[in-house]
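Batch manifest, entry 17 of 40.
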Amino acid sequence: MAQQDEQLTEVEFLALVRGNPVNAALLDRLPALHLPDAYLTAGCLFQAVWNARSARPPAWGVNDYDVFYFDPADLSAEAESRVESRVRCAVADLGVTVEVKNQARVHTWYRDWFGADYSALRCARDGIDRFLVAGTCLGLRLDDGQLYATHGLHDVAAGVLRINPIHPVPALFEQKARSYQARWPWLRGAEVP
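Output type: structure tokens
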């Protein structure tokens, strides 16, 4: 793995992500489900980079695997549950938890869970854009494997934890950054504005 301050190319990033056999299986199997505007995203991606830097197995510390999709046709919890069931059936043999969320409906439940308003999103990438830590705003599109990196790959490669300027929530960012630093002590924080 590159030194902490070096760049990470997209090819290197994809190789690290696919080094986690669960990621590889999800990226290989889920396109067949034809989920609209769907991405593999969140910790299973950036943790592969940090684990490589820490000489840990690629899946170390991954609690679940997140799939975002965007389907404004049915915003019901039941429709989302049906999609989640399809995904879980496709990967049941992997023995992992896959969290599937329709980003078109996040605004319908966000206030109840987090106590704050959340504007309606226009696509799955909008949900990725709102992760608390800038460098973790990453997704791999399921239909073609294309990388979506809101803020690029520098922060994740360099181990910089910077508040996301698109969705700045200082208190939650601090919590998340401390949690990451407890598991990967070499990560360094950027000051909260």
